[in-house]
Specification:
Blueprint (H helix, E strand, L loop, with lengths): L1 H8 L1 H20 L4 E2 L2 E2 L5 E5 L5 E5 H40 L11
Antiparallel strand pairs: 1-2, 3-4
Helix pairs in contact: 2-3
């Protein structure tokens, strides 16, 4: 997790993760019927999810489909925010460096 947070702090890292999330959101939003343990659900089916702590959640077909759509919208929104934020930060950092006279590649001092 530490590596991921270090990666996101860099503007292009945030853009890369944003693109990945956006791409992952597409199949979530376009998916047809929801699945439960790899099996396609049909109206009337109930899926039971267990957490690591032992609690269980039961969702019917409609709830599972809605949950999948919500996850897709969240991934799309977060991905878009990371793309916009990372892109903006990248441009601002480049402008600040250019204004300060710092180049992207250091030049060896002659002497």
């Amino acid at each position: 997790m530490f590596l991921l947070t270090r990666f996101v702090r860099k503007p292009l890292g945030a853009v890369a993760i944003g693109v990945l999330l956006t791409l992952l959101s597409v199949p979530m939003l376009m998916a047809g019927d929801p699945t439960c343990d790899g099996q396609t659900m049909r109206p009337g089916d109930v899926c039971e999810h267990s957490t690591k702590l032992g609690s269980k959640t039961r969702r019917n077909f409609e709830q599972e489909k809605e949950s999948n759509k919500l996850g897709g919208y969240l991934a799309l929104g977060l991905g878009s925010a990371l793309i916009l934020g990372g892109g903006t930060a990248f441009v601002l950092v480049r402008r600040r460096k250019a204004a300060a006279g710092v180049t992207a590649s250091p030049v060896a001092a002659t002497g």
